[in-house]
Automatic annotation (TrEMBL):
It comes from the Bacteria. It comes from Trinickia dinghuensis. This is Response regulator. GO terms for molecular function: phosphorelay response regulator activity; transcription cis-regulatory region binding. The keyword Transmembrane helix does not apply.
């Protein structure tokens, strides 16, 4: 899952980025309305966290532009504007949820999970491949029906592989799925996650294509 945070206050943005990354999401950060427009134009986000009081372009205008262009990702507004008419305006423009600053980070994470469950539940079924099954909505993985406990980035990596199980995924593609802009990535981060997945799922489940990347083993 890839998120976009649109927030100009670093003191608010940094704890949100840290919380979302620890929860296993790749999250990018735009610091003003114009940067948000450019980011949202890529249509790669599963959910947007949007401040209203932004420099260069107001958050409501950003949301309106995004919805008018067909953007369908859920949007949670994060703002210090506590007036009822502001909340109504945001929801009427196309927001899915609303949190007033200061907000609890655990509550924010719970609202993100709820909206993503709703979206993935409508958008796609459980992925199955051979002995493996991955349920995005429930955030569960099983092998031969037995549950397998994965940390968030292991889950994200397996999801990237199982969505296109016969295709070889390059290291750069997997890094993009797992990490946000500016997030420090170790030179062997993907290899470490692959090693951990092999230990939990079986070494044969993930095939290395030398010089290219990784794919799942062929289903029998």
């Amino acid at each position: 899952m890839r998120l976009l945070l649109v927030e100009d206050d670093r003191m608010i943005a940094e704890p949100v980025l840290d919380t979302m990354r620890r929860a296993g999401y790749a999250i990018d950060w735009a610091e003003d309305g114009r940067a948000a427009d450019l980011s949202l134009g890529n249509d790669v986000y599963d959910l947007v966290l949007l401040d209203l009081g932004l420099p260069k372009k107001d958050g409501i205008a950003v949301l309106r532009t995004y919805r008018d262009a067909g953007g369908a990702a859920p949007v949670i507004i994060l703002t210090a504007r506590d007036a009822v008419d502001e909340r109504i305006r945001g929801l009427d423009t196309g927001a899915d949820d609303y949190l007033v600053k200061p907000f609890d980070l655990d509550e924010l994470a719970a609202r993100v999970r709820a909206l993503l469950r709703r979206r993935t539940g409508q958008k796609q079924p459980v992925y199955t491949h051979g002995e493996l099954a991955l349920d995005p909505a429930a955030h569960e993985v099983t092998k031969n029906g037995a549950p397998v406990a994965l940390v968030p980035r292991e889950f994200a990596l397996l999801r990237a592989l199982i969505e296109s199980p016969t295709r070889v995924h390059t290291k750069a593609e997997l890094e993009e799925k797992l990490y946000g802009w500016g997030e420090e990535i170790g030179s062997n981060a993907v290899e470490v996650h692959v090693h951990s997945l092999r230990r939990k799922l079986g070494a044969e489940q993930i095939v290395t294509v030398r010089g290219v990347g990784y794919r799942l083993k062929r289903a029998e």
